[in-house]
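Run ABC transporter domain-containing protein through structure prediction, thanks.
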Amino acid sequence: MAVLSATGAGVRHHKRWLVRDLDLTVEAGETVAVVGPPGSGRTSTLLMLARRLRSSAGTVAVSGTAVLAHVAGVTDPEPVFTVLEHVEERLALLGRPRREAGAVPLHGLEPGLRGRELTPYQKQVLGLVLAGLAKPAVIALDGVDAGLDARERGELWGLLGELTAGGLAVLVTAREVDPARVSRVVHLSDPQAAEPGRVVVQSAEEYAATLNGWPFGASAAALREAAPQEAAPQEAAPQEAAPQEAAPHEAAPQEAAPQEAASDVAAPEEAASDVAAPEEAQPESAEPAATEPESTEPDDAEPKSAEPNDAEPNDAEPDDAEPEEELTEELAEKTEKERSGQ
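Sure, done. The structure for ABC transporter domain-containing protein is below.
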């Protein structure tokens, strides 16, 4: 039996559609998730389906009562109230005796824990406890994946499973959900990548098919349309790589640089010829060095010039020769006398 139905429903905010043209039917015992990226209108869609936010277009009908569990900013727990005091207050609002609070299952919550001390998981549990007191046909809760670790998410989904097993319909919002835990998915488009307000209602199997490698928050139809466009940049990647292939062509001037460098290297060769010139000049400079012995000939000629000094005795020979002639004559006369004496 259908407990909730929406026909052409939509919500607009500041001339911008958050969701539009939503057609949805929720059966008793079903879990329907509203998923999408931040800013896609998940909370507004949830409040519209729970009839807590007036729709801008279309109609939403609920058979029975739709009650909000925890919705941040809407049904936050009172900071100073304890868990038990929250239960007592809700019973009083429903016209029921406060003494019944002691018999209400708290699912592990400490009765004396105050609202400001609750963790995100405990806030979700308290919201389910309070919502269940009204015996509704539909329970709606926001952000079932916000601030919860894997263990807490598992326990929360376990509690939701108990509610649906009892015939309640459950509406949740999340960025992403496990398809095995839901009956259908209201998939909101990413307002940054697609037309704002576009919505696709999918079965759990259809939603699961969109989770494989596709951007989070895009609808299945948008994914099919965007697939060639997204594949194009991948094919264009080699084209982008073309400039990288062109890099060797750009490197050609670098290869030419050695050629230019060759001319630069040739300059030292020319300089070598310039250096060689002094080497050729060395023999020329050596010739004066060779002439130094010739210049020393006057030094060697000094002995020659000394010959006249040696000749001075020769010049003195006439002086010395006169005694020799006298001795020779004396010897000759003596010899003759000896011969005549014989």
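The first strand starts at residue 2 and ends at 13.
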